[in-house]
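Progress note, sequence design subtask.
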């Protein structure tokens, strides 16, 4: 098929690295692996940081202009066989795809759409209505987590859903990774206000309670909250933390290989691509049993998931892996097997093939 791909929150070509950009790129790879031709339908970013009517109106005008441009293009060159929108949600609804797909009788598909009734206030009520309309129209809504599926099903009971477990391209991970330092902790996360800052704050508190143990840590990430985040770790023993800043995605595996345990609380994580990467590199994970994290970490098998907000439990889980190298080794091997065998690009492509085969395409 010829597939028109659109990510309203962030284009796959966006220069700023993030899990969202990475998953968009990986989805395209999976679709291409199936033999489809994927073209980026639009690079228009439809993102509302705050519920401001003026910004919303300006973005709607841009969306109409983009739709008009694409209408002319499709009339000239022919329409695609399928429209595929990645990650529409209340701050980034798809204002192009639904109308365009309907006008040209093209099947419309979403992946990782989300809907939360608690967001229904003010302008967000309107943007969520747009998401709900798109989900209802879609021939298929591909959900990565049961949490997202339930939220969508509650809002749009008659919609069509299919499950695709979160996955990564594992080609960047060596067949046999070098053995890293078992007491070196690794974290890969952007440094911004909100959930990321809250996770860094909890991590600093947990590490502060196990400062007597001989751990060190590598931190990959940068962002506007960098100084505030570093200040959270200021009371820890000197020389324990290596701040690597932002690095190219291709360099992340080598940092992961150098460590022994991946630590990240995970407040607000839809699921967390970084958790999958860490496990592919053979690192057991310590995270919270929160949001979408349980979709990518198997508690007791590929890592430990601790109760939300429980700093003591989080620190104890890290201490357990630091103290018991035999257990860490067993969990590390299962973490790597889990991702390479069950959450790879090949596994995702096979599942996508099953899902898309059910959509009638003219």
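Output:
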């Amino acid at each position: 098929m010829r597939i028109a791909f659109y990510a309203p929150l962030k284009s796959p070509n966006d220069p700023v690295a993030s899990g969202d950009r990475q998953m968009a790129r990986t989805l395209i790879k999976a679709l291409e692996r199936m033999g489809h031709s994927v073209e980026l339908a639009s690079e228009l970013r439809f993102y509302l940081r705050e519920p401001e009517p003026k910004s919303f109106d300006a973005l709607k005008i841009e969306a109409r202009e983009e739709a008009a441009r694409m209408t002319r293009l499709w009339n000239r060159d022919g329409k695609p066989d399928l429209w595929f929108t990645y990650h529409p949600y209340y701050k980034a609804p798809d204002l192009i795809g639904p109308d365009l797909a309907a006008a040209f009788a093209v099947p419309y598909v979403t992946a990782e759409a989300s809907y939360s009734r608690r967001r229904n206030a003010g302008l967000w009520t309107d943007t969520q209505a747009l998401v709900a309309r798109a989900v209802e129209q879609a021939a298929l809504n591909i959900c990565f987590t049961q949490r997202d599926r339930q939220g969508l099903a509650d809002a749009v009971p008659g919609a069509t859903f299919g499950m695709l477990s979160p996955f990564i391209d594992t080609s960047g991970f060596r067949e046999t990774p070098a053995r890293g330092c078992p007491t070196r902790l690794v974290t890969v996360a952007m440094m911004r206000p909100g959930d990321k800052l809250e996770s860094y704050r909890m991590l600093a508190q947990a590490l502060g309670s196990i400062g007597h143990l001989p751990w060190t840590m590598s931190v990959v990430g940068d962002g506007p909250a960098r100084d505030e985040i570093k200040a959270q770790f200021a009371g820890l023993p000197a020389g324990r933390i290596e701040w690597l800043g932002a690095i190219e995605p291709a360099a992340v595996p080598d940092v992961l290989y150098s460590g022994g345990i991946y630590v990240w609380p995970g407040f607000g994580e839809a699921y967390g691509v970084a958790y999958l990467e860490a496990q592919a590199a053979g690192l057991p994970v310590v995270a919270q049993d929160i949001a979408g994290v349980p979709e990518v970490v198997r508690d007791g098998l590929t890592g430990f998931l601790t109760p939300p907000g429980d700093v003591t439990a989080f620190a104890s889980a890290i201490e357990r892996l630091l103290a018991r190298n035999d257990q860490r080794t067993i969990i590390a091997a299962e973490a790597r097997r889990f991702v390479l065998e069950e959450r790879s690009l090949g596994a995702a492509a096979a599942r996508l093939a099953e899902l898309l085969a059910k959509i009638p395409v003219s």
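The two ends are 10 Å apart (CA to CA). Work on this subtask will continue into the next period as scheduled.
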